[in-house]
Design goal:
Length: about 400
């Protein structure tokens, strides 16, 4: 037995030549195309009428893998039953042909390229390929090709094809399950973080302020009392907003949100959202510019759209300094409506912007007036935009403001 180890395309392949022992058996463990198509047996196969031809054909036809032999022109001169079944062709349609008319141009060129390579250098090739069958069905196959040279110095390709479609699908399903598990763990960690910090801290602040007021015995001056009540009111509102986002996100994750497609007047929707945010903007002396929009209507879920815009507008106010401006604009692009929430705020670096919409990497930064938050609103925005069939992204420069953009199909 002779063995040669070749390294090709990052893998080691071992080619082996084996001869039958005294009992006409092949010694050693052989791969699925080796041992059956040894030099001597292949020569028997190529001699029509020999008993070994019938014997070896019977063995080959009992194999689940598709076995084939090609000549130097890549024409098939021998195939087993599994090969015919794989391609859905009879032996008469296969023998003496290259199958060029039965595969796509791209697939044919790849198959022939590998054939030429194996014939030229004699190095065994193992490759995963996509095979398009009759009717357009695609299968993933593992193909093994080796070179054989007979006594007259003629070269042949002997090979085997294994259908690995099912195992590949199982592998992809496993990878997807692992990805979902990682995301689930990240979600769990994020939720515990929000509950442990972003919800507990505001309640502690409210509790402390109410204890001060209850123990003061009416000695607090009106200015201080107004300040404390304002802090309690502000903290309560921000905490309520976080709870609402958590509940909406939870409903989304459990499939409890049923989208309702209705005609939406975009201008009226934006005006309503801005009106609700006007008080917070005035408190920070941030200007919400009145939208100057062309009449646009789309069919979508108005409630979900309001939630998206409300969170984006709240985020813009949080990171815009006193005297800054915020504007909402809308344009039609092909079959989508693109919403843009622009601010003249502090902006952000690329490193920060890439982490915004991922629950595993999302971070919360204090606002320009030291407002606290969880960053959960942006995660909710991404979730809802994708449910509406759109995309969301941010364009920003540190110190120069941000443009949060998202698209929604005009008709969903």
């Amino acid at each position: 037995m002779e063995g040669n180890r070749h390294k090709k395309a990052g893998q080691n392949f071992e080619n082996t030549k084996a001869e039958p022992n005294g009992h006409n058996e092949i010694d050693g463990k052989k791969n699925f195309s080796e041992g059956l198509l040894t030099n001597s047996k292949l020569e028997f196969l190529l001699k029509k009428g020999d008993e070994s031809e019938i014997y070896t054909r019977t063995i080959l036809d009992s194999m689940g893998d598709a076995i084939f032999v090609k000549d130097e022109q890549s024409k098939l001169i021998l195939v087993n039953d599994s090969f015919c079944e794989l391609f859905g062709l009879s032996r008469e349609e296969i023998i003496g042909k290259t199958l060029a008319e039965h595969v796509s141009d791209e697939e044919r060129e790849l198959f022939l390229q590998i054939d030429r390579q194996v014939l030229a250098d004699g190095i065994e090739n193992i490759n995963e390929e996509t095979l398009t069958l009759r009717g357009g069905e695609q299968q993933i196959i593992s193909t093994r090709k080796s070179r054989f040279v007979d006594a007259t110095n003629k070269k042949y390709i002997i090979g085997a094809i294994r259908d690995i479609t099912a195992s590949k699908k199982a592998e992809q399903a496993l990878q997807e399950s692992e990805k979902q598990l990682r995301e689930l763990n990240a979600t769990k960690d994020k939720l515990f973080s929000i509950i442990g910090h972003d919800l507990r801290s505001p309640f502690n602040n409210i509790l402390s302020l109410t204890e001060i007021l209850s123990n003061d015995e009416n000695n607090t001056n009106p200015e201080t009392l107004e300040l404390y009540l304002g802090m309690i009111n502000s903290t309560s509102k921000s905490t309520l907003k976080l709870l609402e986002n958590l509940l909406e996100w939870s409903h989304s994750q459990t499939g409890q949100i049923n989208l309702k497609s209705e005609k939406v007047n975009v201008m009226a929707l934006i005006m309503e959202v801005q009106e609700l945010a006007q008080h917070i903007a005035k408190t920070k002396n941030v200007i919400l510019q009145e939208p100057n929009l062309q009449p646009i209507e789309l069919f979508s879920d108005a409630k979900v759209l309001k939630t998206i815009l409300r969170n984006l507008l709240s985020n813009a106010i949080k990171f815009t300094k006193s005297g800054g401006k915020i504007a909402i604009s809308v344009i039609e692009k092909n079959n989508d409506v693109e919403f843009v929430v622009s601010d003249t705020g502090v902006g952000m670096s690329n490193q920060v912007s890439q982490k915004l919409f991922n629950i595993a990497t999302n971070m919360s930064l204090p606002g320009t007036a030291n407002e606290q938050g969880s960053g959960f609103g942006l995660i909710l925005c991404k979730e809802f935009v994708e449910k509406l069939g759109g995309k969301i992204w941010v364009e920003s420069q540190l110190g120069k403001g941000s443009d949060f953009k998202f698209t929604v199909p005009i008709s969903k």
